[in-house]
Amino acid sequence: MPKGNAKSDTKPRGRMTAYAYFVQICREEHKKKHPEENVVFAEFSKKCAERWKTMSDKEKKRFHEMADVDKKRYEAEMKDYTPSENEKGKRGKKRKQMKDPNAPKRPLPAFFIFSNDERSKVKQANPCYTAGDTSKELGRMWSEADPAVKSKYQELADEDKARYDREMIEYKKTGKVSQPEPPVVKTHPVLNEEEEEEEEDDQ
User: Fold this and answer.
1) What is the DSSP string of 79-126?
2) Which terminus of the chain has a smaller tally of CB atoms within 10 A, N or C?
3) Where in the cell does this protein reside (predicted)?
């Protein structure tokens, strides 16, 4: 007979956010109404995000309650979880979690802001560069940049971090940001992917 407090080596399923529950239920309802339709996830996800933004706190309440229950389930299961040797050695790709479109835009580090300003110049001067080559060149330019230049971008990064902190306080209280402040800098499309990876690591 196994002991009641035996540890499990099966990793618990990751916890779901309120928004993830909302999308899941929307998909289930859509399948019931249109069982033969092939859903294009990117388009469907975009519609869900637009709908979520217009929902009231009362309408979102049940999804937040579902997320709270799942969070408790996850935390309880993690207490009984002991990674096996195989699990410890695995470095598989993390499953990307759905992000709440109401969440504040994450702040950019000084180097990313610098890259926003210089990327187009590097591409124009080196049209044959791949994305990797461009990133390497930007890294070299940043490492050799004058301290005064780095200081300017660090100030912008600090401003963006302060904006993010202010919005996160409201987001944690209400689940949304009533009046998002404009980002200190415009995010470059390439940087969005890197930013998403950072956000996944925080969750």
Assistant:
1) HTB---HHHHH--PPPPPPPPPTTSPPPPPPHHHHHHHHHHHHHHHH-
2) N
3) Chromosome; Nucleus
The whole domain housing 126 covers 108-172
Residue 192: inside a domain, yes or no? no
Contact 43, 26 (CB under 8 A): no
Among 105, 106, 107, which residue's Cα sits nearest to residue 157?
Answer: 107
pLDDT in the model for residue 29: 86
Q: Tell me the three state secondary structure of residue 8.
A: strand
Structure confidence at residue 89 (pLDDT): 54
Cα distances (angstroms) measured from residue 38 to each of 29, 32, 44, 46, 52: 14, 12, 11, 16, 22
31 with 70, same domain: the answer is yes
Q: Which residues have CB under 8 Å from 186's CB, separation 6+?
A: 116
Question: Does 73 reside within a domain?
Answer: yes
What is the pTM (predicted TM-score) of this model?
0.47
What are the backbone dihedrals phi and psi of residue 8, each rounded to the nearest 5 degrees, phi first?
-105, 140
Residue 61 lies in a domain: yes
Q: Does any domain span residue 86?
A: no
| Domains of the chain: total | 2
CATH number of the structural domain spanning residue 51: 1.10.30.10
Q: Chunked in runs of 10, what are the mean pLDDT values of the chain (203 residues)?
A: 55 83 86 79 80 88 90 85 64 61 86 91 83 89 91 92 88 78 55 40 41
